Amino acid sequence: MTYRLTTTMDPEKALWVGTGIPPALRGLGFDEIEALGGQPDALKKARFYVDGLRSQQSKTWRGIPINRFVYGRGLLFAGPPGTGKTTLATAVLCEARRRWGMTVYFARYPEHVTRERQLVAADSSTDPELLSRLRYSSERVQAAQLLVLDDIGHEHATASKFAEDMLESILRTRHADGNPTIITTNLDGDEWQARYTKPLRSFMDQATRRTIFLGESLRQDAA
After folding, report:
1. What angle do CA 150, 155, 160 make, to 5 degrees?
2. How does pLDDT run across 180-219, given as a tens digit for each residue?
3. Using the 8-state DSSP alphabet, how is residue 126 labeled?
């Protein structure tokens, strides 16, 4: 008699495989955020957003958005470091994954820029496993039904405007495809104006709902 050993991945763990969500934040829920305190207004808006995601993304049987003015609209979390932007953005991903079964992906934008530069520079000598990981990440950023781009503004700026142009391309393509993007940034209004183009700044008001995070860093409290 032959015995075959089979293994089944834990269903909760399977929810987060390939999502890019940092292990420490996988499965994070709004109730846990509420227990931490700090940004009750932002949490209220995040709950409202997830509650309405299914209707926001609804389409007719012909595939036409029912409400094209909010279809594909994401969130913009802006404020000082340590005020909980990344944590809440990740909780939105986790809640959307659990409740609506959406494909989700988390990417720190500076790291994504580095990976895209590696893809551009790839040649026949590039390690195939590395190339596969780079392509997977690039595809997820473009195609995930809900994406977090974390730490916008921390990417390395160059004269070629590679990172800035890529950000605009990602956001416009995703919005056109009806895929919402959640952005976190430490940049204030003046810094955004200095770094990115006027058309992109205007487009952000169309593609996202802005929430400003105020107060002292929660990391100081934790310390």
Report:
1. 135
2. 999 999 988 888 888 888 888 889 889 999 999 986 665 5
3. S
In Å, what is the CA distance from 146 to each residue of 106, 158, 192?
9, 28, 23
**What are 179's two structure tokens?**
């895929």
pTM of the predicted model, to two decimals? 0.88
Best CA proximity match to 116, nearest among 150, 164, 78, 148: 164
Phi, psi of 128 (to 5 degrees): -60, -35
Q: C-alpha dihedral over 33, 37, 38, 43, to 10 degrees?
A: 40
13-71 tens-digit pLDDT: 778 888 999 999 999 999 999 988 778 999 999 999 999 999 999 999 998 999 988 99
Residue 39's CB: how many other CB atoms inside 10 A? Answer: 25
- CB-based contact 152:185 (threshold 8 Å): yes
Output Rg (C-alpha) for the chain, integer angstroms. 19
